């Protein structure tokens, strides 16, 4: 399959063009070839010539498209000044996460914790520079070895920080020379997490944590995840656990989790809701996550309630010293107001269950009222609201009633909005074959002067180098599903851009990780945290909403680890623009024509290992 597709495709725009005006030259050459006809290239295969003609006519069409596009293309390809390579940012930006400038936020008057919130509007002009890796940065070990051992220099953490860290999950770390080891296979230490997980399973009435999935627990939001060991254990049980923690200057839980190849994202809900729809998770877990659950009239508990599916669980582990009786009493009173029941308490661990009865909020006295606004259209980081979400949603289905989440039963699709089951099936079918094709392309060979020809052996795909995948415009989550079916051991962060069809509930319900995002802003993650970025149709979308493609690609460069891969799929116009920017960003880049008569193109890029 991969091979036949390979023979059909051809690589255009020549080999390894060094960051220059060469694209324009390439187009000129193509124009010449187009004018002179096949006779001038009798030494090349007929398919290749046709491809070039195709590109020529597509280029013509592009020129006639919108004046704007053409102007931008010209400005980019003329003016040597603009085609200059971007320089590296200063060393102080090694771990730079835009929108989280705590000092700046304090100066702007944010306080009471809101200075740790995401404030993109306060971060000012975006600088056009490339975030550099730290000295001694090393390519992470491949999965699963990389889950247990990471390179010290790749993350910003002080020795004191993990020796002094108090949280149960944090204490699992040990330091060895230039590595941090988590020893999850080491019987002695891992027992802590295993016992803990087993204890939670028993508290919700199961005989073992192997039954989590069977009991409807497929997705867990782990707030303040330590360094992800609990999540790593849940993943091994086939439960998708996403770590979420606030931005931290050093010792970041999110950075360490991602470095280990575990799903994680920066987020907090001090004043605003998280970028997930209501009724998203089967369990929310907080082990000493630093949130005062009894403060703000229970607003934080109400946000957890919003995220939980009916019948879902909230697990709170609070150290004995801090779980003061008065605080526990207050939390208990608040949970009664939102129709949660305390299932069990053992030592420092509490498990509550959200009601499965949507009438509970109106039938009991003194409960928090349902939200008036019942439509399912997502807003982006709206303020916390003192009301119960999702009671009127078609997606109000107790987790215990769900037999399996993946594969989804097409007959059940209508609860997610206006979807056509056939479309969903076709989408998955499409991604099954697309994944094979992409995967065979991800090899440095693609940039060589002698790209693969029909009949040659397929190059080895980089199975061992890719673990964290960001699907920047995930639609139904088809790429994630295809990865799962192909049993490739990656996980995918599925992003549903705002202002597009709201497919995130559908994605999350398949047991996948996902989040809303506005790609006109930067993504809430640390630099170098993803191994592969994929975006289908995102460039056109960014164009249509009037945001800067330059900012988008620079942000992608920040997120991508050195030697990581980018696969962009779009129409010719945006792909050409992106290709020129890729050159400025110093990515190796190749445009691939799918050769089926459409103007769809692939742009495959690899980020180099830049030091200076
Ligand atoms: C953060 O904000 C302060 C004050 O506005 C500013 O001086 C500083 O340069 C900002 N830092 C970054 C990394 O943008
Ligand atoms: C869930 O299952 C229970 C027992 O099978 C049933 O009584 C209940 O009506 C179901 N609830 C929903 C919302 O489907
Ligand atoms: C060509 O392939 C692309 C991507 O594989 C697809 O989106 C497009 O619909 C195809 N076009 C035709 C005319 O088959």
Automatic annotation (TrEMBL):
Name of the top EC class for this enzyme: transferase
Keywords, in A-Z order = Glycoprotein, Membrane, Methyltransferase, Signal-anchor, Transferase, Transmembrane, Transmembrane helix
Q: Which domain of life is it from?
A: Eukaryota
Can the keyword Electron transport be found in this entry's annotation?
no
The Gene Ontology biological process annotation of the record reads: methylation
Matching SUPFAM superfamilies, A to Z? S-adenosyl-L-methionine-dependent methyltransferases (SSF53335)
Q: Name one GO molecular function term.
A: methyltransferase activity
* Annotated transmembrane regions: none
Asked if Transferase is a keyword of the record, the answer is yes
Where is this protein found?
Endomembrane system; Membrane
Pfam families this protein is in? Answer: Methyltransf_29
> Know the name of this protein?
Methyltransferase
